[in-house]
Amino acid sequence: MSRKSRKKRKKSEESKEQKIYKAAMYVRLSHKGEEESLETQKTIIREYLKNYPEIVLIKEFEDYGWSGGNFHRPGFYSMIEEIRNGKIDCIVVKDLSRFGRNYIETGRFLEYLFPKMGVRFLSVQDNYDTLYKEEEREAFLVPLKNIVHDFYKRDIGDKIRSAIRIKQERGEYVGSCPPYGYQLDKERKLQIDYEAGLVVKEIFQKYLDGVSIGDIRRKLNEEGVLSPCRYFARKGILKKDRTNGKGVWDDKIIGRMLMNPVYCGHRPIRKTRTLPWSGKKENIDKEQWDMLWNCHPPLIEEEVYKKIEKRREGKTVGKGL
Q1: pTM score > 0.70 for this model?
Q2: How far apart are CA 115 and CA 131, in angstroms?
Q3: What is the pLDDT of residues 1-13, one digit of tens each?
Q4: How many CA within 13 A on the CB side of residue 65?
């Protein structure tokens, strides 16, 4: 029986070697701080493939600035589309963490989807090749490595959130753009921007006097008052005007502004939470937000904000604030 099985295995290996694989190289980098660049990953893979004459590199796919925590990445999507179109039947990565850090999704691709699609998968530094996975001890370690990568991703996320929280509690504003009506000082704390602050005060006062949001919006646009996005672009806070010069005030911008506690000196620092079983975020009820109270100069009196908040109850102002 053993001689017979060895003969079958030898024939199987010979048939495997005869096939020419059309390969895709996949590289990923979530941020600049990682030790290896995309080019370093590509070099490692190219050197590795010199030992595999049956694998022909057809295309390279990359995702820069994308987390391995999920597979909603443009480069990854393009690669899967090429597989579906029959243009690729082999994927090569530097290591499993570059492919993904979600061990459930990674396992689904390696153990179910790729075999079903007839795709060979190689991970260079893990010494993993699905063509021979039944005969290699490394195959047993792959699920464990995927779990380790997943927990590493979660640990890094926790550390980043903790660092952000410490900065916020020191009064620092975390974000590229401050709320409209404010500007950042050298310590990244919110200070009043008097030009935009006058507009904010006018919006709150008019609404308190009974003027509708629609009428406020029309008045601002008629007077040529720059919308927040265009104002930040003019001041150089945004590198360019993302509205292509067409950004105007709308009801959603004004509605969110009227409901934002930042204008009376308070700042919410946690409005969402991450679900542990899926990694997805969900909104938290406003009553349960974590707040920093009286942490910067107010533009609106607390009493005014509460009157407007009461008037706005039950009205839709769009997502967020």
Answers
A1: no
A2: 10
A3: 434 434 434 444 5
A4: 1
Alpha-helical (H) ranges within the chain are 2-18, 38-49, 74-84, 96-99, 103-108, 114-117, 138-169, 194-208, 213-222, 228-235, 251-258, 302-312
In single-letter form, the type of residue at position 192 comes to I
The single-letter DSSP state of residue 176 is: S
Contact 46, 57 (CB under 8 A): yes
DSSP-derived pairing of the beta strands 272-274 and 281-283: antiparallel
Residue 4 domain-assigned (yes or no):
no
Q: How many domains does the chain contain in total?
A: 2
Terminal Cα-to-Cα distance of the chain (whole angstroms): 72
β-strand partners of 274 = 281
Other beta carbons within 10 angstroms of residue 104's beta carbon come to 13
SS3 of residue 210 by DSSP:
coil
- Quick one: which of 250, 271, 265 has its CA closest to 317? 250
How far apart CA 224 and CA 96 sit, in angstroms, is 54
Q: Is residue 89 part of a domain?
A: yes
CATH of the domain at 274: 3.90.1750.20
Residue 38: domain span: 20-153
Query: Are residues 291 and 191 part of one domain?
Result: yes
Q: Contact, 249 vs 220, CB < 8 A?
A: yes
Q: How far apart are CA 157 and CA 314, in angstroms?
A: 35
Distances from the Cα of 14 to the Cαs of 8, 10, 313, in angstroms? 10, 6, 73
Instruction: State the DSSP code for 285.
Output: P
Pick the closest to residue 173 from 35, 55, 269 (CA basis): 269
Q: Is residue 6 assigned to a domain?
A: no
CATH code, domain with 62: 3.40.50.1390
CA distance 157 to 171: 21
Average pLDDT of the chain, as a whole number: 80
Q: Could you tell me the pLDDT band of residue 157, with boundaries at 50, 70 and 90?
A: low
Q: How confident is the model at residue 318 (pLDDT cuts 50, 70, 90)?
A: very low
